[in-house]
């Protein structure tokens, strides 16, 4: 099982590199990331969160019953936001920032161009929860965490909570 690195690990601040090879090694990483994500009840994970600085991420939004189905899994390589509009405030958490949730403002709707595990170009329009998940995970690829988007007072609250947990 891949280990998910957590804040303040400096790797999380690294900008990830473009994926050039769509081979068995990449496929195995994607499969292992999926297992790691599900084991922690996550809906998204980026490769940098398992200490692999490549532009790859997974998103699997639960269905209405709260189940994550493999057929709903999006494997996203080298994503690029083509269009963004509207605004939504969403309570976010992160596998790399465990047990901390806070409202973050994001675009309500995004259009993403990316490659699948075989290198084929894809495009998707995402709204609401899925749009938020895309933006959250793409931020990871750019070395940005959701706590970076918080207003200063909420950011201070987060840092205080983190220090308190470290003492326990």
Automatic annotation (TrEMBL):
Binding, Fe cation: 94, 136, 140
Keyword Phosphoprotein: no
Entry EC no(s): 3.5.1.88
Cofactor note: Binds 1 Fe(2+) ion.
One GO-annotated biological process of the protein: translation
Role this protein plays: Removes the formyl group from the N-terminal Met of newly synthesized proteins. Requires at least a dipeptide for an efficient rate of reaction. N-terminal L-methionine is a prerequisite for activity but the enzyme has broad specificity at other positions.
NCBIfam families, per database record: pept_deformyl, PRK00150.1-3
Protein name: Peptide deformylase
Organism: Helicobacter valdiviensis
């Amino acid at each position: 099982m891949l280990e998910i690195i957590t804040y303040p690990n400096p790797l999380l601040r690294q900008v990830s590199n473009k994926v050039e090879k769509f081979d068995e090694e990449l496929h195995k990483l994607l499969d292992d990331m999926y297992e790691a994500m599900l084991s922690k009840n996550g809906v998204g994970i980026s490769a940098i969160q398992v200490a692999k600085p490549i532009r790859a991420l997974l998103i699997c939004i639960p269905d209405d019953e709260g189940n994550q189905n493999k057929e709903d899994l999006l494997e996203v390589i080298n994503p690029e936001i083509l269009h963004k509009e509207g605004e939504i405030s969403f309570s976010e958490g992160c596998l790399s920032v465990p047990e901390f949730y806070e409202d973050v403002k994001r675009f309500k709707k995004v259009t993403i161009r990316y490659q699948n595990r075989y290198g084929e170009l894809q495009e998707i329009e995402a709204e609401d929860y899925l749009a938020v998940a895309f933006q959250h995970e793409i931020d990871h690829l750019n070395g940005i965490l959701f706590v970076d988007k918080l207003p200063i007072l909420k950011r201070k609250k987060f840092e205080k909570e983190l220090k308190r947990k470290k003492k326990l």
